[in-house]
Write a structure and sequence with these properties.
Elements lengths: L1 E5 L5 H16 L5 H11 L2 H9 L4 E7 L2 E11 L2 E9 L8 H15 L4 E7 L4 H7 L3 E10 L2 E11 L1
Parallel strand pairs: 4-5
Antiparallel strand pairs: 1-2, 2-3, 3-4, 5-7, 6-7
């Protein structure tokens, strides 16, 4: 059985493992190993994830199949939109329609909270951009964001809900 539920602090390690696996599978051909390590240490360390999981403004949604975490999404309000900050799945969970189910859940939750659009950033070389386009997102702008000694070469994508 597939279900989506709210993330809890007890999910932290499993969330982190899914993110680490997804990053290694996705980004090794896009950015340097040093940048991957930097990003994982900065944004996916236990302290940062714990803080976000405990923050009422941040929502984590866990997609489970038969009680086992397959992937998760992290959303929070940004200006007049709900930002999809993270959506990651274990490699074995890809191609099963879980991404579509989870992103639609995030969009429904955003609507319940009064938001009429979703925004996200995606690396311009990340194949996931094609998934977002298929889900009705459009490229709003191309940005290069400095982060320490690295650059985030992203598209900002938006979807009217």
């Amino acid at each position: 059985m597939i279900q989506v539920r709210k993330g809890r602090i007890q999910d932290l390690e499993e969330i982190r493992r899914a993110a680490l696996e997804a990053w290694q599978a996705t980004y090794t051909s896009i950015i340097s190993a040093a940048q991957i390590d930097f990003m994982l240490n900065r944004f996916y360390n236990p302290e940062t994830l714990s803080s976000q999981l405990n923050d009422e403004g941040h929502d984590f949604y866990i997609l489970e199949e038969d009680g086992k975490l397959q992937g998760y999404a992290h959303c929070y309000p940004e200006a007049d939109a709900m930002k999809l900050s993270k959506i990651y799945f274990y490699t074995k969970a890809k191609g099963k329609g879980f991404g579509q189910k989870l992103i639609m859940h995030c969009e429904q939750e955003a609507l319940k909270k009064g938001y009429r659009k979703m925004i996200l950033n995606v690396n311009r070389h990340n194949p996931a951009q094609h998934f977002y386009l298929k889900m009705g997102y459009r490229i709003l702008e191309e940005v290069d964001i400095p982060l320490d000694v690295y650059w985030l070469n992203d598209y900002i994508m938006v979807k009217e809900l």
